[in-house]
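User: Fold this; tokens only.

Assistant: Input:
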Amino acid sequence: MKYKLSLLIQILILIAFLFLGNLKIVKAVENPLAKTNNLFGIHILNESDIKDAANLVNSSGGEWGYVTLVIRKDERDTTRWQKVFDELRRHKLIPIVRIATIQQDGGWEKPVLDETDGWVSFLNSLNWVIKNRYVIIGNEPNHAKEWGGEVKPEEYADYLSTLSRKLKEESGDFFVLPAGFDASTPNSDMGMSEATFLQQMVEYKKDIFSNIDGWTSHSYPNPNFSGSADAEGRGTLKTYEWELEYLKKLGLNKDLPVFITETGWAHNTEDVQNGYKATHTISSNLKWAFSEVWNDPKIVAITPFVLNYTTTPFDIFSWKKKNSDSFYDFYYEIQNIPKPKGQPLQITTGKLLFVFVPRILKTNNKDYGIGLFENSGQSIWDWDKFTQIKKEGETYEIKPFSILNNTEPGERSVVLYSKI
């Protein structure tokens, strides 16, 4: 009897040793193009638009499309944004987070270095949807209205380098992206050309791009957001190509994956008098762009601006109609394009909290046990299939007993588990 009790205790200790605690995960950004990637995305301004975004970018066979969203410094509420991330996770949407200050005098308050620790703490407090934590630092700083009424390339360079360094010191999973620029802005009292701005940044801080992992582009079809779909160069749908070539001239010696987080045509909002494109023209333009222009293997995501903004000044970009639950025809045109099932890496970890039955149940040449697990990772454990967990080169599989209920991060479930 003592021998059997001792053996049972040893088995329990062994199982606890194998499962207790989180898996050891290497903290480093993943190449988003290493596996199947669904580059379709959309820019959203409110979490209430998540379902409509998913119906667009994950339609026609797709999964794990992208959404670009903005978090202001006065919105750094972990509870709120964790709920948003959890909802994105359920809809298989990958967030690209652009951080912002607060609106001030018709523009935006200038960021200050003293705020960087607050951003790092907040962003690191969230359980992100996938392993790569995409963060865009700022927005169009070559516009004075985006930087407290001034254009200061040196100040933006300090802010970008400081915050990117601190984010990566906190977690190597932060995938840092610089602000997208307005490539069509000329030099003036209230703006600076992107070329001049970038040149002054590099002259001030030669290693400014050492801590960024990708390139953010606002590849709008100009002039007047009404340009040709097949035009090339600065101020077109291929602005990103001009930007990458210019960065090489400035000394950039690494290949950067591209995130087109703003693009799209202004439309006539069903009013032919405003001079913008008709919505049916935008439909054909976007279809052409996705198939013939943005088929570049360097592009990770394309998130046109904007899904739902039905008041001035951005109603001319909105994909949703004013005072309606329906959308303009280009929403449905893009919805009908076949899309791939993206395969982003998620951290899949679990904690064994209690053993009901050790791994002594045999079936199909495997030893199974029954235990209470907590989902401590990012992925959702499906109730109707096994989820694989890796630990130190060995693979285990678990399957929740909960009928019709998946196990989300932070939740607990009784599971069947086995070593593969």
